[in-house]
Write a structure and sequence with these properties.
Order of helices and strands: HEHHHEHHHEHHHHHH
Distance between the termini: 44 Å
Oligomer: single chain
Radius of gyration: 22 Å
Structural class: mainly alpha
Helix content: over 70%
Strand content: under 5%
Shape: globular
Largest sheet: 3 strands, mixed
Number of helices: 13
Strand order of the largest sheet: 2-1-3
């Protein structure tokens, strides 16, 4: 939370310093988010659909956090990282969906310049955190399966906290880098963003100043941020598969692999949808198609993560059942106390 507040401080300081620069010719005070469709008859359907998905995402991930927090059996590194991932997924969707719902409800497409920059910054921040946390979770499974006797020694609370802290630091500086570079761009008359949120690539395309350096940094950072964690995940699972193959009993193999299925499903969903968006944007120049495709990793993936972990993980299912029984019992006690004279 401290890093989050610190990142906001640096963002505001950077924006102020750039706007005070007399070489900055930006005369734009607001942008227009075009969204999915301009047809009035489709707006209630879009509003209801995205409101439902947003509420499912928030309450599903919040339920995972509360279940893990309330069950002492789940106070392990694996579930510590899972609660962090759930928190990031809530923040990830909250950077884009509420603004889109507000625009539909008020029948306005306006987002201020400062609001657009802030939204872009936090979107990149939580995207990076998602990738880094998935990589850390793969490393956790690697240690648990390949070095089970030393697991508690290696994955101690200090190291777990340090790994999460490093994820935040890398994501904060990555987001600040792109945001500070966008703040140096000038925007002329074209203020329409063919998307439902302020996305980095769309912002660069709208600029009327030289964007060569922005594009180079964006592609270089994308390769590092996408390929680096992905290679780390592949390496971890190659070692995991090799270790599982060395187990003699079929039951032992199943037990070892079952601890990875939830994480592997989430990783596959995240990277497959992201790759699908990239390939669709490369294959077609239609901004509408790209906008629809981006819903998969910005909304659908965070929404499905709680279902994947709750349906495929026995410990989480049992924790959720205990949490629901405990909540129901507390409710009964509160009602009984209210009825007492």
């Amino acid at each position: 939370m401290y890093l989050w507040a610190l990142s906001i401080f640096f963002l505001l300081i950077g924006r102020h310093s750039i706007l005070m620069d007399p070489g900055n010719n930006t005369g734009i005070s607001e942008f227009q988010l075009l969204g999915f469709s301009e047809k009035p008859e489709l707006q209630p359907l879009i509003f209801g659909l995205f409101l439902s998905m947003y509420l499912i995402t928030v309450f599903g991930n919040l339920l995972i956090i509360l279940a893990v927090h309330s069950d002492s059996h789940l106070h392990t590194p694996m579930y510590f990282f899972l609660t962090n991932l759930s928190f990031v997924d809530i923040c990830f969707t909250s950077t884009t969906i509420p603004k889109m719902l507000w625009n539909i409800q008020t029948q306005s497409k306006v987002i201020t310049y400062a609001g657009c920059i802030t939204q872009m910054y936090f979107f990149m921040l939580f995207t990076g955190l998602d990738m880094f946390l998935l990589t850390v979770m793969a490393y956790d499974r690697f240690v648990a399966i390949c070095h089970p006797l030393h697991y508690t020694v290696i994955m101690n609370p200090w190291l777990c906290g340090l790994l999460v802290l490093v994820c935040w630091i890398l994501s904060v500086f990555h987001s600040l880098l792109h945001t500070s570079m966008v703040l140096r761009l000038s925007f002329c008359t074209e203020v329409e963003i063919p998307h439902f949120f302020c996305e980095l690539n769309q912002m660069i395309q709208l600029a009327c100043s030289d964007t060569f350096l922005n594009n180079m940094v964006m592609y270089f950072a994308a390769i590092l941020l996408a390929a680096g964690p992905f290679i780390g995940i592949l390496y971890s699972y190659s070692k995991i598969v090799s270790s599982i193959c060395g187990i003699s009993s079929a039951q032992g193999k199943y037990k070892a692999f079952s601890t990875c299925t939830s994480h592997l499903s989430v990783v596959s969903l995240f990277y497959c949808t992201s790759l699908g968006v990239y390939l669709s944007s490369a294959a077609t120049k239609s901004s509408h198609s790209n906008t629809v495709a981006s819903v998969m990793y910005t909304v659908v993936t965070p929404m499905l993560n709680p279902f994947i972990y709750s349906l495929r993980n026995k410990d989480i299912k049992e924790a959720l059942m205990r949490f629901s029984r405990m909540t129901a019992l507390k409710g009964i006690i509160v009602l009984a106390l209210k009825k007492c004279p």
